[in-house]
Amino acid sequence: MNNLLRLIGRRLIALPIMAIGVTLLVFFLMSFSKADPAYTALGDGASPEAVAEYHERYGLDDPWPIRYVRYMGDLCHGELGTYGAARNSVADRISSALPVTMQLTFMGLIIGAIVSFLLGVIAALYRDRWPDQLIRVFSIAGLATPSFWLAVLLILVFSSYLGVLPSSGPLPDFLSNPGGYFARMIMPAIALAFPLTGQMTRIVRTAMVEELDKDYVKTARGAGLPEKVVIGRNVLRNALITPVTTLGLKIGYLMGGAVVIEVIFNLPGMGTAILQGVQGNETFLVMGVVIVVALAFIIINIVVDMLYLLINPRIRTV
């Protein structure tokens, strides 16, 4: 238990260090942007005097380390700046966009985890037989299919041709209209999950095959234990340690893919927000979205590390 608490403490100590590193890197890189927030706020026809006054008011001419310290102070208070001619709050924009991205990410994660788990186990149990061969073709297709290409194909088939699923429009509220919510989210989630499913299926199959070939499985079978007990209690528990760890690391990949998928399906998530920021030269909006996504990725991976410590008792003694 002491080793477990010590390892968890290390992860928690690393969190603020990595968060500061991410914000420092993003702020430093964005300081090279040629987009002037003054012209974004005042318009392209703003006079030099008005631009100079705007720079002085918000300290835009200060060295970037001073601006970084000021930005971190605002960030600790939940202030991420403003964007657009109306000076809308970046924090408000992210607070409405981040839940959509996280919902799409975890929906894709759940679909990928369930399908890859089932197919990987079946492929291992029917090793080198026809179910394994079919699943192998499916996994290779998943690895070779880009999410954005599959997204366009799904829109063409299910929206344009069959007309059974919407590809654009507002996202319905889950509680008031769950059917409309899933109809709007299912195609983006499948497009996001399909490449992950192909990769995870191979990982689950490999881990299962390695465990099935170990001596303790042969001993358990020789002792007359039922096959369900051998597979369910022993093989699955040991074989799923590596896939669970890999799946946790793939959350960042899914979040990055969700940003692209959101733009294709016109979902009001972080992808749409960062596209709006890039097209409008909104430095604070782009910077806020990138920082929040990076911090979410760091926090999720630390949580996955903690879950891995709980799943794998051998790590606790390290």
Brief synopsis:
This protein is an all-alpha fold.
Structure description:
It is a single chain. With 318 residues, the protein is mainly α. 77% of the residues lie in helices and 1% in strands. The chain has a two-stranded antiparallel ribbon with strand order 1-2. Helix 5 crosses helix 8 and helix 11 runs antiparallel to helix 13. 30% of the residues are buried.
Topology:
Blueprint lengths: L1 H29 L6 H6 L5 H11 L5 H13 L5 E2 L4 E2 H36 L4 H15 L2 H15 L16 H35 L2 H8 L4 H13 L1 H25 L4 H10 L3 H29 L7
Antiparallel strand pairs: 1-2
Question: Which terms would index this structure?
Answer:
318 residues; single chain; mainly alpha; globular; two-stranded antiparallel sheet; 13 helices; 2 strands; 77% helix
Strand content: under 5%
Catalogue the unreliable spans: none
Number of helices: 13
Structural class: mainly alpha
Assembly state (oligomeric)? single chain
How far apart are the termini?
A: 12 Å
